[in-house]
Amino acid sequence: MTTDRPTTLLAELTHRCPLHCPYCSNPLDLVRAGQELDTDTWKRVLTEARRLGVLQLGLSGGEPLVRKDCEEIAEHARREGFYTTLVTSGLGFTRQRAERFKAAGLEHVQISLQDADDDNAERIAGVRSVKQKRAAAALVKELDFAFTVNVVLHRENLDRIEQIIELSADLGADRVELANTQYYGWGLVNREALMPSPEQVDRAFEVAERLRQKYRGRMQMVFVLPDYYEKYPKPCYGGWGKVYVVMSPDGKALPCHGATNITTLPMPNVKDHSLEWIWQESPLFQAFRGDGWMKEPCVSCERKCVDFGGCRCQAFALTGDAANADPICHLSPHHHLIADALGQAGREVPFTYRAIAPEPQTA
Amino acid sequence: MALTSTSRPSLWRFARVEFDPVRNRPVLLYPEGAVLLNETGAEILRLLDGRRDLADVAGALKARYGAEDSAGVEEILKDVTEFLDGLAARELIRDD
Question: Which of A100, A298, B6, B13 would you label with A184, given CA atoms 20 to 30 Å apart?
C-alpha cells in the first residue's frame, strides 16, 4: 500500500502513427490496432484514474488522432475534471476535428516538431509532414488552445536549437519543451546516430538559457538535459510509482514508458484489474517503491532520496537487472557502459525508423 | 521581477483553480502541471483580476478572515506577495 496519489496519466490511445521518428518513446514491440482498448474501456479507466487522484491527463500515442473516438474520450475527461493535453504530431488535426475538441473542452495541445529545417525535419520524421504541422499550429492558435511545441533533441538537430526556439515563438507557442533523446527502445537502437557531442550539448544549453530570458513571460521553456552527460541519474518521475502512470494502447498500466522492457515482472492490465488495484497492489508498481529493493552503491548513498537510484528501466536495459544503480551514475559499477556509448557516438550510421513489425506468418 | 503592493497581477489565462474532491482541497491546474493549494491560496488567486493591486487583495483578505486571524494587513501583504512571487517565478502569475 502507498499513501501517494498519482497526479499524471499519459494515455497512449494507439501506437499507430504516420511518423517514423527514430527516437520514438513507444516500445519496439508496437501494439497493433486490433489489440487497442475500446472507447468504453478508456472512459472507465479515466473515471477510475480521476477517483485515484489523477489531475493531468495526456492523450497521446502513437498519433492519438488516428483514433476517431479521441474527441469523445477528451469530452469524458473534461467532465471528470482533468486538465487534458492532446499530444499530437499535428497530422490529422483538421479544422473539423479541432472544433470538436474545442467543444469537448480540451484545453491544451502539444505539437511535435522535428527540426526548424524543413528538409531535415521530414528526413527525421521519415514522412512529408511540415506543411500539415504548420496548418495544425495555426488552428491551435485560431481556436485559442494553450499551445506547446515539443521537440526531441539529438545530434541531427541540436545545432539549430536557436532556429527551433525562434520557430516555436513564431508559431505562437505558450510553451516549448526541448527534451534531449532518452535512450530506451527506439532511441537505444539509434543511439549511435542520435548521440550528440559534449560541445553540442554545452552550446545548446547556453543558447536555450539566453532565449529563456528573451521570451520570459511570453513563452515558457523546459529544457531536459541528456542524462548521458550528467554525473548523477535523473529521478524517474519523482520516484517509481509516486505520481505517474503511463498506459499502453492494449491496457497495460506502467510506472514509466520504459517499463515494458523489464521482462522480469508481470505487466498489470486494466482489462484484468482496476487502476486502483494496479496502483496500490500490483507487484510491478510495488517493486521499486521506497528503498528496500536497493543494492550498493545506492542503499548507503546519501542521494538515494534525491534520485532514487535513477531510472529502473535504464538500469534493466543496460545491465539486465532493474535493481542495479542506473549506470548513468558515476558511482555505478556499470558506468563504463555509458563511457563506451559516448565513445561510439558520432559515427555515421543510418536511422532505424520506427515501424510495426510484419504480421507473424502462419504456416 | 518581484511583485510589490501596487502590482496588479493576474493568473495565467491557461491556468485555473479547481476543487479536488479526492484530496479535499483546491488545486491550481495548468498545462502539464498542478499545484495543491490551501483555501487561502485559492482565495488569493480568485481575487486576482488584473485590476486589484496586492494591497487591495491583502485588504480583502483582512476583511474576510480578520475576525478569526489577528494578522495585520502589512503581515498579510507580505505573505500574499511571497506566495505570488513563487507562482510568478513559474510564470503562472503574469504582471504586465
Answer: A298
Find the CB nearest B31 among A53, A85, A216.
A85
**Concatenated DSSP letters of B28-94:** EEETTEEEE--HHHHHHHHH--SSS-HHHHHHHHHHHHTTT----HHHHHHHHHHHHHHHHHTTSEE
Contact assignment for A83 to B22 by CB distance below 8 Å: no
Per-residue pLDDT tens for B8-51? 999 999 999 999 999 999 999 999 999 999 999 999 999 998 89
Give the residue from chain A lying closest to B16, CA to CA: A83
pLDDT band per the 50, 70, 90 thresholds, residue A359: low
Give residue limits of the domains in chain B: 10-94
Radius of gyration of chain B (CA): 13
* Cβ separation A108–B32 shorter than 8 A: yes
The reported pTM is 0.95
Distance from CA of A320 to the nearest CA of B (A): 32
A85·B94 Cβ contact <8 A: no
CB A264 within 8 A of CB A283: no
ipTM score of the complex? 0.91
Give Cβ neighbours of residue B24 (< 8 Å, ≥ 6 apart): none
- Residues in chain A with CB shorter than 8 Å from the CB of B33 are 56
Query: Tell me: the pLDDT tens digits for A132-184?
Result: 999 999 999 999 999 999 999 999 999 999 999 999 999 999 999 999 999 98
Q: Among 1.10.10.1150, 3.30.450.40, 3.30.465.10, 1.25.40.10, what is the CATH number of B10-94?
A: 1.10.10.1150
